[in-house]
Amino acid sequence: MAERAQLRAAERHLGGVDPVLRAVIEACGPCTLDADRCRRPFPALVQTIIGQQISTAAARSIHRRFLRLYGGKAPSARAVLASTEQELRIVGLSRQKIRTLRDLAERVRARKIGLAALQRLGDDEVIVRLTGVKGIGEWTAQVFMIFRLGRLDLLPVNDLGLLDGARVLYGLPQRPSARELTDLAEPWRPYRSVGCWYLWQGRRRWQGDPERK
Fold first, then answer.
1. Is the pLDDT reported for residue 60 higher than 80?
2. Theoretical Cys-Cys bridge with 62: which of 35, 46, 92, 154, CB 3.0 to 4.6 Å?
3. Total structural domains in the chain?
């Protein structure tokens, strides 16, 4: 997991190899990726699934309504399985996401996937395990690994917020392609996850975050 000392080392490295990120780091302050590491893995993955392919604001709103189904607390796999499709649809979840949440919950309850054990696996193996769940793709796995497992060198190249952050901060005429983003982030190794965090933060700071409205 990302420890505070590792994050400080990442900031020094990124600031040394990338002048744009150096300015973002100075403006945004210390990276706080370590703040999510104490969260239980099932609720963290559920929240990531809810946020698939929708804006940050929409994801937050749906997640708040989702938690209200369970008295404001993150539910267990058993509690998710006990919820009806109508209850889950009312909070704003699509049928596809309901299927994904139920498949994940069923696998967790049946011990077909051990989320706590993922921490001991390499990045590629974690992606294989998670994408075995119906509806979980590589983006969901990578975001979960960055924010919950504290993996420091991931680059979710299909994240639109990340691509837009690169466009804004580097003054590009349009969003970079996945290959262009990969090339841009090559000097960030072995701390590409931290570089991504700063792109997300910088985009909100300099562009304004319409998703917060």
1. yes
2. 92
3. 2
